[in-house]
Write a structure and sequence with these properties.
about 625 residues; alpha+beta; 3 domains; 11 helices; eleven-stranded mixed beta sheet; Jelly Rolls; six-stranded antiparallel beta sheet
Length: about 625
């Protein structure tokens, strides 16, 4: 907070943290600026050659509007009490351009340094006209007037690594395409449901959310304090082995003969130990070839879930932390290699339903570069060797608490539109998302009072195991809810069904996500003649045992991504039993059929957690998952 005291003992003029040096203000609209002072104070403000005035109300709040400005700068903003220019706030380095609010859960929060080609991207990120304001994590019971922390930063290689990768790559493309300064207000929190970001007033209007929002009435600020203390202890246990276990358990002579065994690689949900959150130790004894002795070896451990430490013959060889990008291979120094039997120990945090070693089996081994020794097979494991993790209520997931602390304080800062990437946390409520998502969009638009502000969002990517047969899917139903939200005015969706990773809920290719969002902006907002979306299901007709599907966004034609047969279609009759279908492109249609279904009633495309699908338009954008039926889904209560 900038504190500037007015002379003669008057109350200070203050501005909320959303205003600061190097900020970007929105072009093409009357620019709002607001703050606090003593009641009745006459405020004078200058932005470049523009001037505006206001009077603080009975509670000391004031708000003024600068006239419409074109892109440009830099400008200086001066704010003072009228007649006392020597006691003023001065903000420097201000540009006029387009400001986008980027929000959602972890895939929007995922940083440049955690994403694809991070080293090269960071080194080249010198863009003085791209600015970021990162809103600090915070949660509050009532709507706040200021954010907890955050300041505007000019994008450069020294700070870009911490910015949202999706928002950065979006900003970079729009800046290059439109030649205007771009500001990003990043307000994100991983793992959070959409209800957290929606106001109490809006949630009270729906029977879906009324009960949950009234549950907040029992909360107090002390609830948050207690949870914060538990959180400190939680991560202390995760990162610091308790009960001296890091000295005892990895020891070569430690007796683990009484431990149960589990086949690796696999995840905790397949352990057979039921839902569990805490620290688990695993051990495996292996005999290495004599040719390995005296050499540095490489241990490939695949892609373990969550936080872990690895030990070889009692010595720690790696330790990862949350939100880091752990390597998948580590060096075992030659001095640790023993002839005959060697011991590998793994301390791993089983958190939020995750934990374990990801398949495939060939991804875990020890090698000298020529010979591989597999680590797949039986491992011994034991839980509860360390204190249990304290219960964390994760109040950030409670309805409206993030809206109160991380959205309300930046209203009504002038913006061009919204960027949104969220949905994973609502997978079990996919059917309700049909209403929850439009509720949030309407809520934010109403509060900004800038009309139907553009709302651009990312559809859930492909994730989890690929299933051999057509089946129901919560993620498919969530994607459907997102597609249906395109019926809301001034919305655009980036489909990324082709760039996910089966074993990583945070796929690294954030460049393409940002690019596809920018395509939507260029078409919807900046009115460029571009194709911004892949083929979108439009209608179908039935001819005997075949169904003809027509698409929008395919005026130049349809094709497959890999020049192979079309994959991803399934078809069913009245019995609602789906079979994989054959599909061919005929002109502007895709013709779908299966020998097992002589009287087809429904077609689905890419209807799975992680579908194998390859239909695209000639611009290379993937066809959006869809179904022609309205049969009851697994999330429809």
């Amino acid at each position: 907070m900038l504190f500037f005291f007015i002379q003669n003992g008057h109350a200070q003029i203050t501005l909320p943290r959303v205003f600061g040096d190097s900020m970007i203000l929105q072009r093409g609209i009357k620019i709002p600026v607001w703050g606090n002072s003593a009641p009745g104070t006459h405020i004078t403000a200058e932005l470049g050659k523009s001037r505006a005035t206001a009077i603080a109300d009975h509670s000391g709040k004031w708000k003024l509007l600068f006239p419409v400005l074109k892109a440009g700068g830099p400008y200086e903003l001066k704010i003072s009490e009228t007649g006392k220019p020597n006691a003023e706030i001065k903000l420097k380095g201000i540009l006029i351009g387009d400001v986008w609010l980027a929000s959602g859960q972890s895939n929007m929060e995922w940083s440049v340094q955690q994403s694809q080609d991070a080293t090269r991207e960071i080194a080249n990120a010198d863009f003085s006209q791209i600015r970021f304001l990162q809103v600090a994590h915070d949660k509050k019971i009532t709507p706040q007037s200021d954010i907890l922390d955050g300041k505007w930063e000019v994008c450069n290689p020294s700070n870009v690594q911490q910015f949202s990768a999706v928002a950065y790559y979006f900003a970079r493309k729009i800046h290059k395409d439109q030649h205007v300064p771009i500001g990003i207000i990043q307000s994100t929190w991983g793992g959070t449901p959409i209800e957290s970001w929606t106001s109490r007033e809006q949630l009270l209007t729906s029977p879906i959310t009324q009960a949950n929002i009234t549950a907040n009435d029992t909360l107090s600020e002390q609830s948050f304090v207690n949870d914060s203390l538990n959180l400190i202890r939680f991560w202390e246990i995760v990162y610091q082995p308790q009960n001296n276990t890091d000295k005892i358990i990895p020891a070569i002579r430690y007796d683990d003969s009484g431990w149960p065994t589990v086949e690796m690689p696999r995840l905790i949900k397949d352990f057979g130990i039921g839902p569990y959150e805490g620290m688990v130790w695993l051990r495996k004894k292996i005999t290495l070839p004599e040719s390995f002795f005296g050499k540095d070896l490489t241990l490939h451990i695949g892609h373990p879930e969550m936080n872990y430490s690895m030990y070889f013959n009692g010595e720690e060889i790696c330790k990862t932390i949350w939100n880091s990008d752990p390597k998948q291979s580590y060096t075992i120094p030659a001095k640790l290699i023993r002839k005959g039997e060697n011991t590998i120990s793994l301390r791993i945090a089983m958190l939020w339903g995750g934990g374990g070693l990801n398949p495939p089996a060939e991804g875990i081994n020890i090698t000298d570069g020529a010979v591989k020794v597999s680590l797949a097979g039986k491992w011994r494991y034991q839980k509860d060797l360390e204190p249990g993790l304290p219960k964390i209520n994760n109040y950030q997931n409670y309805p409206s608490l993030l809206f109160n602390a991380m959205i309300n304080p930046v209203i009504p800062f002038g913006i061009k539109g919204f960027l949104w990437y969220q949905g994973e946390a609502n997978e079990a409520e996919a059917y309700n998302y049909r209403k929850l998502f439009p509720m949030l969009i309407n809520d934010w638009r109403k509060r900004w009072q800038q009309g139907d502000l553009p709302f651009l969002y990312v559809q859930l990517t492909n994730f989890k195991k690929t299933k051999p047969l057509p089946s129901e899917s919560e993620w498919a139903e969530l994607r459907e809810a997102q597609t249906l939200t395109l019926s809301q005015p001034n919305t655009g969706m980036a489909c990324i069904i082709d760039i996910g990773e089966a074993d990583n809920i945070h796929p690294k290719n954030k460049q393409e996500v940002g690019r596809r969002l920018a395509l939507n902006a260029n078409k919807l907002v900046y009115k460029q003649n571009v194709t911004a979306s892949g083929p979108l299901y439009k209608s179908y007709r039935k001819e005997k045992n075949r169904i003809y599907i027509s698409f929008a966004n395919a005026s130049a034609g349809l094709r497959t991504k890999d020049a192979k047969e079309i994959t991803g279609f399934s078809i069913a009759g009245n019995d609602q039993q789906f079979y994989w279908a054959k599909a061919t492109i005929k002109g502007k249609y895709v013709v779908v059929y299966a020998d097992q279904v002589q009287d087809p009633q429904a077609v689905r495309y890419a209807w799975a957690d992680n579908p194998e699908c390859n239909l695209i338009n000639f611009e290379g954008l993937p066809a959006i998952p869809f179904r022609t039926d309205n049969w009851k889904g697994i999330t429809q209560k």
